[in-house]
Amino acid sequence: MMVDQEFDFRGAVRQQWDALARVYQTYRSTGDSFNDLIEIPAMHSLLGDVKDLRVLDAGCGTGELACYCAAAGANVTGVDIAEEMITEARDRATRRNLDIRFLTGDIENLPDLQSGQFDLVIVSVAIAGRLYEIVAESRRLLRNGGALCISDVHPIVNCGQNESRDGKPGIFVHDYFERSLRKTVNPFGQSCGQEDVEFIWQYYTLGDYFDALWKNGFVVERYLEPEPMAEGMPKKLERAKSYPIFFLVRSRKEGRLDES
Ligand SMILES: C[S@@+](CC[C@H](N)C(=O)[O-])C[C@H]1O[C@@H](n2cnc3c(N)ncnc32)[C@H](O)[C@@H]1O
């Protein structure tokens, strides 16, 4: 479903994530979500050794990756637009006795953070709004040679409908090139509650992510479409064997931006 562009998009994103903070925390605590079993192992591999790195977890949500990096010896800042998410993230870090700076802010524009102060920026399933602005702001915040690690739900999932043929789960892809605001209801499963929370995001094609990186002077180092790693996957995740649910890309900031 596509929605009208003429409304306070940022306010809506903040509101939906404030409302979903608890639900998301529950969803990510089960240990058997798509993220846990497919995205996170791939993200850990993409991040590599983060010891002593200055890391920004942009759109940190409940702080799972911020805590992972801090526990591995990084100096971590986490930013999220939703105050409730930051509260959950702070609680998680306190429970784990980790020292992390958490801030509320919009990752499209973070004027309180100095240019070039990070070695690594992570944007993990957090691009709800303007992709090009988020990549440009990440560039500003990174030192030359610093890395940007993005993960996201694969666009074919976001523009497709589940469909089974011959007993095999598949997906019917449509409106792939329709870069519009998309809307659904709480996508984190009935078992997590709050089914009625409306959920919106700006849809991009896979090519748009690479275009945004290229236009902002990033060189792609690695691209992953992770397959399920765990034996005995829960039945609800079977479809992940059929098509990619996530993609991840690691890129490096080049010294100068070609204006051509
Ligand atoms: C699916 S959650 C992912 C959270 C976390 N990165 C993780 O991997 O668990 C998306 C998060 O992005 C945040 N977000 C979306 N747009 C944002 C923006 N423009 N600025 C800051 N945070 C944003 C939301 O508030 C939400 O916490």
Q: Describe it for me?
A:
This protein has seven helices and eleven strands. With 260 residues, it is an alpha/beta fold. It has a single domain, classed as Rossmann fold. It has a seven-stranded mixed beta sheet, sandwiched between helices. α1 runs parallel beside α4. The longest helix is centred in the N-terminal third of the chain and has 21 residues. The protein starts with 8 loop residues before the first helix and ends in a 7-residue tail after the last strand. 38% of the residues are buried. The model has no long low-confidence stretch (mean pLDDT 89). The structure holds S-adenosylmethionine (SAM). S-adenosylmethionine binds next to α1, α3 and β2.
Alpha-beta content class: alpha/beta
End-to-end gap: 37 Å
Query: For the residues shown, what is the average pLDDT?
Result: 89
Name the CATH superfamily assignment: Vaccinia Virus protein VP39
List keywords for this structure.
260 residues, 31% helix, binds S-adenosylmethionine, alpha/beta, Rossmann fold, 7 helices
Summarize it:
The chain has 260 residues and is α/β, with parallel strands linked by helices.
